Amino acid sequence: MILDVGAADRWIAAHLPETASYVALDYPATGNEFYNARPDIFADACHLPVADACIDGVVCLEVIEHVPDPALAVKEIARVLKPGGRAWISMPFLYPVHNEPFDFQRYTEFGLRRDMARAKLEVTDLHRSGHAIRAAGLVMCLAIAGGVDTRRGALKLILLPVALIAIFTTNVTTWLLSLAWPNWDNICTGHHLEVRKPCEPAVTPDRT
Question: What pTM was computed for the model?
Answer without folding.
Answer: 0.85
